[in-house]
UniProtKB/TrEMBL annotation, chain A:
Sequence intervals crossing the membrane: 12-32, 38-60, 72-90, 96-115, 127-150, 170-187, 218-239, 259-281, 293-317
Membrane topology: Multi-pass membrane protein
Gene Ontology terms: cellular component: plasma membrane
Primary localization: membrane
Signal peptide: none
Source organism: Xaviernesmea oryzae
InterPro entries on file: ABC_transp_permease, LivM-like
UniProt-listed Pfam families: BPD_transp_2
Protein's recorded name: Branched-chain amino acid transport system permease protein
Cell location: Cell membrane
Keywords: Cell membrane, Membrane, Transmembrane, Transmembrane helix
Protein's UniProt keywords contain Transmembrane helix: yes
From TrEMBL, chain B:
Protein keywords: Amino-acid transport, ATP-binding, Nucleotide-binding, Transport
GO molecular function, one term: ATP hydrolysis activity
Alphabetized CDD domains for the sequence: ABC_TM1139_LivF_branched
Protein name, UniProt field: Amino acid/amide ABC transporter ATP-binding protein 2, HAAT family
Family: Belongs to the ABC transporter superfamily.
Key word Nucleotide-binding present: yes
Ranges that cross the membrane: none
Top-level taxon of the source organism: Bacteria
Sequence ranges assigned to domain ABC transporter in this UniProt record: 14-241
Taxonomic classification: Bacteria, Pseudomonadati, Pseudomonadota, Alphaproteobacteria, Hyphomicrobiales
Source organism of this protein record: Xaviernesmea oryzae
């Protein structure tokens, strides 16, 4: 063999900086465990949204598609877990997996015709999906109890052991969120992940290289639905109550803010965005009636100076450092 | 030429029969036939808007088309684009179609999507042809020069181990020296046995490479010429003015 053998298809080693976000997440969670239950609840929301946005990032960031309807799958997860556990006495963990499977099947059925659409048309179709499921949660009172909401949902647990305190639940959510991010990162680095990236880069080029883009888009959509469903279930078990508003348009807007602020298409962007967008309004409570203005001003400021999200800044710093080294 | 009734040795690498394509009510490509023999380098020449890109897209089913396409005698008319790559038909699109946010390395690895196990060895072959890509291996594709981007586009296509490489105006927007360098590499690839179908506007460069050209005008192939039969560019000009 010639010099070919010396060329690696993998970039040189994993940099230690890649582990910094894990340390940061553990530090944030540790801070939460030493704080009040209120702070723990806010952080709990952040890690539930981390799971939701990590899935959304799969479809929107890695694959370059638009979906405004992932809240529909969160609703299936949330209401599915609520009904199975509160009415039928299922184990919460079993209900979580069962509703994920149901969401996956629903995503295949919905995605198969919908994903033939592109751009704004796909965005509108998925938005309609979210609205339809939202209406169902309101109108089908026999199943969902409508605006009254569903209460009496047990906390997460397994084999009779329940995570009773919010701090125990926070630890479980952090572990699940990190697991979700790790699975997404592993998939992103795989042949499958590279195929998704090629679709995001240029669909016609991906086709020309042999990538079956219709199949991969559907798989990415299903993966995003599984994450959304898990987030919906975890929300139901964490709070013990759900209502249609939880899975409404606010969830879509909130998750988009998290995704873009953190850095769409990056591994840690959804986590960073979820933590900041969840925690920032609480940190600004001191501003009283100016709280919303302060919050949105900070979001706009971040988006102006980090248009590719906060996670994108590390890549920017890396490039600048490289140029400085090159110049030296 | 007909696929039926020909001997195995004379079966063309690619043969298109009465292939046509429309955009809405506008027929951009009128029923057209062409063929490429094994190991041949054929050029399609024609002015702007003649239908060159539509012909390439119709052959690879990136644009919906009518008519039949055969690859080594097998009817591939109904196959979607991604399955053509599995047969060894790979296209480098006009505008290169790179993944600009990814590094040179990542672009090349995606090129080997169908041959992941051979990616490392194939990358060596690409770097042998385009040493500059090796120097830029971790550079973001979008930050490469135009010439380097074209090298990467061809290199990525080579990662897919093509038996027929189709290129849509690879010299577009490049300095003459770089365009010559890239087209010379195509000649080298052809010597290594890869069939090449090249769409080109720069007739002088294209005529140096190919032994046979098709001239396309107003959505139809109007001439099939051997390059040694072309005495002057005036011979071609009359087809351009068709």
């Amino acid at each position: 063999m010639t010099s070919h053998a010396t060329i690696s298809i993998e970039p040189a080693g994993i940099r230690w900086q890649a582990m910094l976000p894990v340390v940061a997440v553990v530090v944030v969670a540790g801070f939460g465990l030493l704080s009040s239950d209120y702070v723990v609840t806010v952080l709990g929301f952040a890690f539930i949204y981390t799971i939701f946005c990590t899935g959304l990032n799969f479809f929107m960031g890695y694959t370059g598609q638009a979906s405004f309807g992932q809240s529909a799958f969160a609703a299936i997860g949330g209401y599915g877990s609520a009904i199975l556990c509160a009415d039928y006495g299922w184990e919460p963990l079993l209900a979580l997996f069962a509703t994920m499977a149901l969401s996956g099947v629903a995503a295949v059925i919905v995605g198969f015709p919908t994903l033939r659409l592109r751009g704004h048309y796909l965005a509108m179709a998925t938005f309609a999906l979210g609205l339809i499921v939202y209406e169902v949660t309101i109108e089908w009172t026999g199943l969902t109890q409508g605006y009254m909401g569903y209460s009496g949902i047990p906390p997460l647990g397994i084999a009779g052991y329940e995570l009773v305190t919010v701090k125990q639940q926070l630890v479980a959510l952090v572990v699940l969120a990190l697991f979700g991010v790790a699975v997404a990162a592993r998939l992103r680095q795989s042949r499958f992940g590279r195929a998704l990236a090629s679709i995001a880069g240029s669909e016609s080029a991906a086709l020309a290289l042999g990538v079956d883009i219709a199949r991969y888009k559907l798989v990415a959509f299903v993966i995003a639905a599984l994450y959304a469903s898990a987030a919906g279930s975890l929300f139901a078990h964490f709070i013990g109550f759900i209502s249609p508003e939880v899975f409404g348009v606010t969830m879509v807007v909130q998750s988009f803010a998290m995704l873009y602020l953190g850095g769409i298409g990056t591994m840690w962007g959804p986590t960073i965005g979820a933590i900041i967008v969840s925690v920032l309004p609480e940190a600004l409570r001191g501003l009283k009636e100016m709280q919303d203005i302060g919050y949105t001003a900070i979001l706009i400021f971040i988006l102006i100076f980090a248009p590719r999200g906060l996670a994108g800044l590390s890549a920017l710093f890396g490039r600048v450092r490289g140029r400085v080294k090159e110049a030296a | 030429m007909s696929a039926a009734g020909t001997t195995a040795a004379s079966v063309p690498l690619l043969e298109a029969r009465d292939i046509s394509a429309s955009y809405g009510h506008v027929q951009a490509l009128k029923p057209t036939s062409l063929h490429i023999a094994e190991g041949e380098l054929v050029t399609i020449l024609g002015p702007n808007g003649a239908g060159k890109t539509t012909l390439m897209r119709a052959l690879t089913r990136l644009t919906a088309s009518m008519g039949s396409v055969f690859f080594r005698g097998e009817d591939i008319s109904g196959l979607p684009t991604h399955k053509l790559a599995r047969r060894g038909i790979v296209m480098v699109q006009e505008g290169r179609g790179l993944f600009p946010q990814m590094s040179v390395r990542e672009n090349l690895i995606i090129g080997a999507y169908l041959h992941a196990a051979e990616a490392e060895a194939q990358m060596g072959t690409v770097f042998e042809l385009f040493p500059r890509l090796r120097e830029r291996i971790d550079q973001i594709a979008g930050s490469l020069s135009g010439g380097e981007q074209q090298m990467l586009a061809i290199g990525r296509a080579l990662m897919a181990k093509p038996q027929l490489l189709m290129l849509d105006e690879p010299s577009l927007g490049l300095a003459p020296r770089v365009a010559f360098e890239i087209l010379s590499t195509l000649s080298e690839l052809n010597r290594r046995g890869i069939g090449i179908l090249l769409v080109e506007q720069k007739a002088p460069l294209a005529l140096k490479l190919a032994r046979r050209v098709y001239v396309i005008s107003l959505g139809k192939i109007v001439a099939e010429l051997k390059t040694d039969e072309i005495k002057s560019y005036h011979d071609l000009a009359r087809y351009y003015l068709h």
